[in-house]
Design brief:
Number of strands: 0
Radius of gyration: 13 Å
Strand content: under 5%
Largest sheet: none
Oligomer: single chain
Order of helices and strands: HHHHH
Helix content: 40-55%
Shape: globular
Structural class: mainly alpha
Distance between the termini: 29 Å
Number of helices: 5
Number of domains: 1
């Protein structure tokens, strides 16, 4: 996982101004299921470019209790710590939660 970007990409599903239903409903459902698992996950950018999803990272930071997998990355990867500290919304409104983002994309 790369931690080089600092703001969500233009089509990040966490951005309220991004195109909707970019993925199939199955992908959004997988996000919800993974998020509820004990370990959680580190979500990569949907562009499959090896970068961490900054929208997801900002959601994790907002929760004030990151997933276990993210906490492990923060312990072992200095660039992940810098990314978490420097990540910003780029001036774009983000959904308040993963659930809200999924609902906006047609998945309950």
């Amino acid at each position: 996982m790369k931690w080089d970007t600092r703001s969500p990409c233009p089509s990040c599903p966490y951005r309220q101004d991004a195109p909707r239903e970019h993925w199939s409903p199955v992908e959004f459902q997988k996000l919800l299921e993974t998020d509820q698992s004990e370990l959680g996950a580190i979500y990569g950018c949907h562009k499959d470019n090896g970068q961490a999803c900054i929208g997801w990272l900002l959601d994790q930071r907002q929760r004030d209790l990151p997933s276990i997998r993210l906490r492990l990355a923060l312990i072992t990867t200095p660039s992940a710590v810098r990314c978490l500290e420097e990540a910003h919304d780029g001036g774009h409104e983000l959904f308040g939660s993963l659930e809200a983002m999924c609902r906006a994309n047609g998945v309950e």
